[in-house]
Design goal:
single chain, 12 strands, alpha+beta, rod-shaped, 245 residues
Length: 245
């Protein structure tokens, strides 16, 4: 099995954060040997190279690098120089059996980090597809709810709808002060949309006006332009006749 180092799988991250995170994701199947446990956390140092020995003949306690403070918690002396833990202890650290808390698979601890990043599958909470942690870290789920992110826009939507939203979001368009082509496209699209809405409104208003009942001043009958019943004595009717003649 090819081992993957911590920094290869988590570029730019802090070592102590990921060490603690990974260490809490497995359980020991075998009973731990107290003499080679960290004197602070009572666990085997993880990874094995994270274990150090307080290089003081009166102490010589094993500690995790992440558990070290300026002074030794046991002899209260300044930590000063530290040494690597004995080789036999490191071999035990690596060969001890552990169980993954996520999938219950058992393995030697030496291989757990590779299992954590590449073999143990995690279900995406949005699309419910299984990924290993390496792929999940770069997975931009199309079903995830996100915010526009533009100053002034408070809308939320699924990631897959982001492009469609940005085409219409005036806050996003106007943020690109230097992108004149983008602004012009936005203004043209907006003006066309406004013209369409005005034309639709005018047509709707015209249809409503045509349905308004009118009373002919000459004969007293009700009529409307919408139903085509124009009184022959109405001025419009007379005007049309005059033109046709």
């Amino acid at each position: 099995m090819n081992k993957t180092t911590l920094f290869e799988t988590t570029p730019g991250s802090t070592q102590s954060y990921h060490i603690e995170k990974i260490r809490n994701c497995f359980s020991y199947v075998e009973k731990l040997s107290r003499p080679i446990c960290c004197g602070v956390c009572n666990k085997y140092p993880y990874p094995a190279t994270n274990g150090v020995l307080h290089d003081d003949l009166a102490c010589e306690r094993i500690l995790c690098k992440t558990c070290i403070t300026d002074t030794c918690p046991f002899c209260t002396k300044l930590m000063g120089d530290v040494a690597r833990v004995p080789r036999y202890a490191m071999n035990i650290y690596n060969s001890v059996q552990v169980k993954c808390n996520e999938c219950d698979e058992e393995m030697e601890r030496e291989f757990y980090e590779n299992h954590y990043w590449e073999d143990c599958l995690i279900i995406c909470e949005f699309c419910h597809i299984a990924f290993n942690r390496v792929d999940l870290s770069v997975h931009s789920c199309p079903e995830e709810m996100i915010n526009c992110g533009s100053d002034g826009c408070s809308l939320s939507f699924k990631r897959k709808d982001l492009e469609e939203h940005l085409d219409e979001c005036r806050y996003y368009i106007l943020e690109g002060l230097g992108n004149y082509d983008c602004k012009i496209k936005f203004l043209v699209n907006t003006s066309e949309l406004l013209f369409q809405r005005v034309a639709a409104a005018e047509e709707h208003i015209s249809s409503l006006v045509d349905q308004i009942p009118r009373k002919c001043k000459n004969c007293g009958k009700d009529f409307s332009f919408g139903d085509g019943s124009v009184c022959r004595y109405h001025p419009v009717f007379l005007w049309i006749n005059a033109i046709s003649n």
